Amino acid sequence: HLYQMDLTGPTALVLGAEGDGMRQLTRKTCDALVSIPMQGAVESLNVSVASGVCLYEALRQRLASAAAIKA
Predict the structure, then answer these.
(1) Residue 35 in 3-state DSSP?
(2) Across all residues in the chain, what is the average pLDDT?
(3) How far is 5 from 58, CA to CA, in rounded Å?
(4) How many C-beta neighbours within 10 Å does residue 31 have?
(5) Can you tell me the mean pLDDT for 32-56?
(6) Which of the four, 11, 26, 32, 61, has the lowest number of CB atoms within 10 Å?
(7) pLDDT at position 45, please?
(8) Quick check: 71 pLDDT over 80?
């Protein structure tokens, strides 16, 4: 899932539509497919919310990586 991916290097995020996801050719072109772990009755997030979660996780990892390098 998303939190197991290394997002500290150059990364392109390709997000699929809610429900349908993305086209098969797009899926095959991606290096990795990940999901956002969900709890409770929530089945999916709209793409703008999912984008925010993914971007925040990338920032969190990069800040942690930069802090580890400085230490």
Answers:
(1) coil
(2) 91
(3) 9
(4) 6
(5) 91
(6) 32
(7) 86
(8) no
Q: What is the mean pLDDT of the segment spanning 20-34? A: 90
Q: Are 16 and 48 spatial neighbours (Cβ–Cβ below 8 Å)?
A: no
Sign of the torsion angle spanned by Cα atoms 21, 27, 30, 31: positive
Instruction: Of 15, 4, 8, give the one whose Cα is nearest residue 62.
Output: 8
Q: How far apart are CA 69 and CA 71, in angstroms?
A: 6
Cα separation, 46 vs 9, in Å, equals 26
Q: In sequence order, which residues have a C-beta less than 8 Å from that of residue 22 and are 6 or more positions away?
A: 14, 15, 16
Q: What is residue 21's three-state secondary structure?
A: strand
Q: How far apart are CA 22 and CA 68, in angstroms?
A: 36
Confidence (pLDDT) at 19: 67
Tokens, residue 23: 């086209």
**Closest by CA position to 5, among listed 55, 67, 69:** 55
